[in-house]
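Please discuss these two lines.
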Amino acid sequence: MTAATVIGVDAATAGLGDADHLARALAGELALPDTASVGTHAVRAGRPHLALSLTLPDAATATEAWWALTRRTEPEALGLAFGERRHGPAELAEGAAHAVAERTLHGAGRAVLFPGAGALTGTVGVAELLAVSAVDEVALLGAAGPPDGARRILTRDHLRPEWREGRLVLTVMEAAGGVLVPFEVPDPTPCCADH
């Protein structure tokens, strides 16, 4: 992966759910191939929010997606970055550039869409998950090593692995009945929701 295949998109998205929704909407709108990845990245400059990185399989696909994004009817709503190019409001374009840098230089971010993600619904085995997707590693929270490949993961149809130094790592935790569940829950209860 190089900067020639990664596009940053910043819509000043405040929460993970909204960022996930934008990621899926853009993937559909751009007809991204199954080999593409879309990740979220925290932007701390200005008002903290999330930006996206779109990692495409090759420079031609990335260039086509770039031009499609720049032709959108609401350019003021998105900041874009692709290589040295910037588009949209300066603050958002810089947030988009930050997402590209996190993905390309630091191998970091939270994956919303990644190769093989569509096959990971319901309950899947650790070994199967590793075999059919771009996930490189499953990390069991609080354990010294990875879980046994035969262990089952109840996906809750919501897997959000993280890129750590370029490797895609899914963190899981123990759950009732001996299954594992992803550490990130699909619909977290907001802090202080009960009062």
Remarks:
- The mean pLDDT is 92.
- Residues 14 and 49 are 5 Å apart (CA to CA).
